[in-house]
Amino acid sequence: MTRFIFVTGGVVSSLGKGILTASLAAQLEARDLRVNVLKMDPYINVDPGTMSPVQHGEVFVTTDGAETDLDLGHYERFSHARMTRNNNITTGSIYAEVIRRERRGDYLGGTVQVIPHITDEIKRRIKLVTEGVDVLIVETGGTVGDIESQPFLEAIRQLRMEVGRSRALLIHLTLVPYLRTAGEIKTKPTQHSVKELRSIGLQPDILVCRSEAQIPQSQRNKIGLFTNVEERAVIPLVDIDTIYQGPIELHKQGLDEYVTEQLQLECPPADLSSWQRVVDAQLNPQNELKITFVGKYLELLDAYKSLIEALTHAGIQTLTKIDIQYVDAEILERDGVGVLEGADAILVPGGFGERGFEGKILAAGYARQHKIPYLGICYGMHAVVIDVARNCADLAGAHSTEITLDTPHPVIGLITEWTDDSGIVEQRDADSDLGGTMRLGEQVCILNQGCLAERVYGQSMVRERHRHRYEVNNRYVDQLVASGLVIAGKSEDGELVEMVELADHPWFIACQFHPEFTSSPRDGHPLFSGFVQAGLDHAEAASAAKAQ
What is the domain-level CATH number for residue 509? Predict the structure, then answer.
């Protein structure tokens, strides 16, 4: 029978519940257990798809096309579990379903209330992802004490009672601050956070205590005494050099041993050798590469979380320290391409809207002209197509209809009909709701034989995840190809351009999909590893040229 582990956070936000949850998943997988992970978010949005990336961070896209919280990216990077739309629930989605049922008459005229109707729906959604797994880890967003998360915590209380203590554990992540002026560790915030939990009927079984300084055993004993938690279940987590040390450091503190013991799980010891190799490779690089990252959501780098991690993974695979130089696309528009001088490689990520887009087009053109390795993703591919159209194909004023509806040459346009990976025909128009109306999820891309992309991937068919509304306009493909653009990949039906390259360039690839969503620290991703290797080759050649 499936065991449940619930993870909550207290004292302050941004303590790293997602990393803790993902690290625990990695530990349990290393013990040959089948693991799944669920994130419960207390915001009223149905999903994060329409939320500002500079407020909420990245939208992580699952295989089946759900727009979800960025923590699901951590879950996939740390484990082999594949997330679906059922692995992320929000207050908005719960209330929407309950209200839909009420309108349909499912409650037979009864008064619909938070308890039992909302909490019952939360429990139902939790149980949806338990099939075929030994352990389900459930992370609750927000901080204990927030009014928004109370229904989720109540559902956890009820579910623990229903399945029994031997099948459910509660892990509470807290902050144990270190006051430098006094030279002291302070345990009172943790005590109060646990008191808040206990006031709603939840007693944590394990406390994971974040701190910037080592927590003495005496302080751990004190925390255990005042929170009614066993001393060896007070797990310190001091700041680490890389998030991928999480599974190893928490193993050293005995987290997975205590969890499996309390849940009465029979399993072998954890084999974390693959994680040790990842950490060794990241902390002991043999090369260094400067990558210029031309973005527009740089106020909050979590907006590019999976992309930044994918570059880190490529560094791990190539034993390279990645030095990301962030360039605001609007500054590039204002100050010119001089800010790109000295770049060993240029990456232009996805995005939406007019702001900064001309800067991205300039970056694509600079990489094209100066033979600098280039990787364009989604909007970064649109920038390439528009640059080639304007400057190589003599299509003056070429643009995307996302930006300019009356452009004389709409080389990028809104596609109104396409077939998804299951064969279902999807439709949309300019008046469709923003949420959930994009081309979303994993789809097949057929690579052209002999192209750079095929050599990089090492195969002719790949499956990657999409999140976009606009595509290359097929009416212009022949003219663009005649001007040096190479169509490197298309959708399975051959209708949509998925990847482009340049005929006269050492390494220049742009893709409509988001390869960052399928990169992991243990396996990397061929596009990013190839990009980093191309950057190293370019840097070496540039250095040799200077030496002459």
Answer: 3.40.50.880
- Pair (65, 123) in one structural domain: yes
Of 237, 253, 278, the one marking the end of a domain is 278
Active site residue 56: no
Distance CA 446, CA 493 (A): 9
Annotated catalytic residue, options 67, 402, 501, 516: 516
Residues 6+ away with beta carbon under 8 Å from 232: 254, 258
**Where is the domain boundary, 278, 305, 329?**
278
The answer to whether residues 236 and 314 belong to one domain is no
What is the DSSP secondary structure assignment for residue 520, as one 8-state letter?
A: B
514 catalytically annotated: yes
Where residue 181 sits, what CATH number does that domain have? Answer: 3.40.50.300
148 is catalytic: no
Annotated catalytic residue within 382, 505, 514, 538? 514
Residues 210 and 309 in one domain: no
Side-chain-facing half-sphere of 292: CA atoms under 13 Å: 25
Long-range contacts of 304-308 (CB under 8 A, 24+ apart): 304/58, 304/349, 305/57, 305/58, 305/60, 305/70, 305/73, 306/58, 306/60, 306/70, 306/73, 306/514, 306/516, 306/517, 306/519, 307/347, 307/349, 307/377, 307/516
Tell me which of 378, 445, 451, 511 is the catalytic residue. Answer: 378
Q: Is residue 39 part of a domain?
A: yes
Please identify which residue in the block is written with the tokens 């999480």.
246
pLDDT tens per residue, the chain (548 residues)?
999 999 999 988 889 999 999 999 999 999 999 999 999 999 999 998 888 888 888 999 999 999 999 999 999 999 999 999 999 999 999 999 999 999 999 999 899 999 999 999 999 999 999 999 999 999 999 999 999 999 999 999 999 999 998 999 999 999 999 888 888 899 999 999 999 999 999 999 999 999 999 999 999 999 999 999 999 999 999 999 999 999 999 999 999 999 999 999 999 999 999 999 999 999 999 999 999 999 999 999 999 999 999 999 999 999 999 999 999 999 999 999 999 999 999 999 999 889 999 999 999 999 999 999 999 999 999 999 999 999 999 999 999 999 999 999 999 998 764 344 455 545 555 555 555 567 899 999 999 999 999 999 999 999 999 999 899 999 999 999 999 999 999 999 999 999 999 999 999 999 999 999 999 999 999 999 999 999 999 999 988 888 77
pTM over 0.85: yes
User: What's the number of domains the chain is made of?
Assistant: 2
* Pair (87, 174) in one structural domain: yes
Task: Give a yes or no: residue 27 inside a domain.
Answer: yes
Structural domain harbouring 177:
3-278
